[in-house]
Amino acid sequence: MDVRTRIPTLYGDWIDKHGPTWAAQIEGILAKFGNKILSVEVPPAAATDVPILRVEPSALPEILAFLKVEPGYEYGFLADYTASDETPRKPRFDLILNLFSHTKLCRIRVKAGVAEGSEAPTLIGVWDGANWSEREIWDMFGIRFTGHPDLRRILMDERWVGHPLRKDYPLRGYQIQSIPEPIDPEMLK
């Protein structure tokens, strides 16, 4: 059994319920953005639960702003924003955004590949909440965001060396700090 196996629920099967909506949305997105969309995976043809749009990283703010406010899409809720290390594949990292539409009651996933040492544009202009997610992605994976106003560690100590969710990070990469992290006086203002 894989994700394409239909399982009846109280709310109906996602593919039956949202398939026509997704098909119309994908058609509109491809017509508007053309070559900025690198690939599309749609259930049940692909082993996925929701459509996945793979896009050019530079086009992320434009495409996500469209998905957020355009009538017929209205994916106004950024449910999750994370990354994954896809070593040895090139580009090495994937930025992954899971969006939810409160008006359509459906989801869509957007992915963008980011090469080692490359930067992605910040999405704070589309969602204020992307601030914290981008700081976490920087902290855990080392992906930088162009235009981010405060890109600094959020989970690890500022003195930490490396990014723990990279596949090449040592499994026992302990770093013991004998003195607590100093308090930044700017943070107390």
Describe what this molecule looks like in 3D:
It is a single chain. The protein has 189 residues and is an alpha/beta fold. The chain has a single domain (14-188), classed as NADH:ubiquinone oxidoreductase Nqo5 subunit (Beta Polymerase, domain 2), CATH 3.30.460. It is built from 3 helices and 7 strands. It has helices at 14-33, 60-69, 130-141, and strands spanning 37-41, 52-55, 77-85, 93-101, 106-114, 119-121, 144-146. The strands form 2 sheets. A 5-stranded mixed beta sheet has the order 1-2-5-4-3. It has a two-stranded parallel ribbon with strand order 6-7. The longest helix has 20 residues, at 14-33. The chain is globular. The mean pLDDT is 91.
Averaged pLDDT? 91
Ranges with pLDDT <50 over ≥5 residues? none
Strand order within the widest sheet?
1-2-5-4-3
Number of helices: 3
> How many domains, in number, for the residues?
1
Order of helices and strands: HEEHEEEEHE
**CATH architecture field:** 2-Layer Sandwich
**According to CATH, what is the class?**
Alpha Beta
Keywords:
189 residues; two-stranded parallel sheet; five-stranded mixed sheet; Beta Polymerase, domain 2; alpha/beta; globular; 7 strands
What's the gist of this structure?
With 189 residues, this protein is of the alpha/beta class. Helices cover 22% and strands 22% of the residues. The chain has a five-stranded mixed sheet. Strands 6-7 form a two-stranded parallel sheet.
Tell me the layout of helices and strands:
Elements: H1 14-33, E1 37-41, E2 52-55, H2 60-69, E3 77-85, E4 93-101, E5 106-114, E6 119-121, H3 130-141, E7 144-146
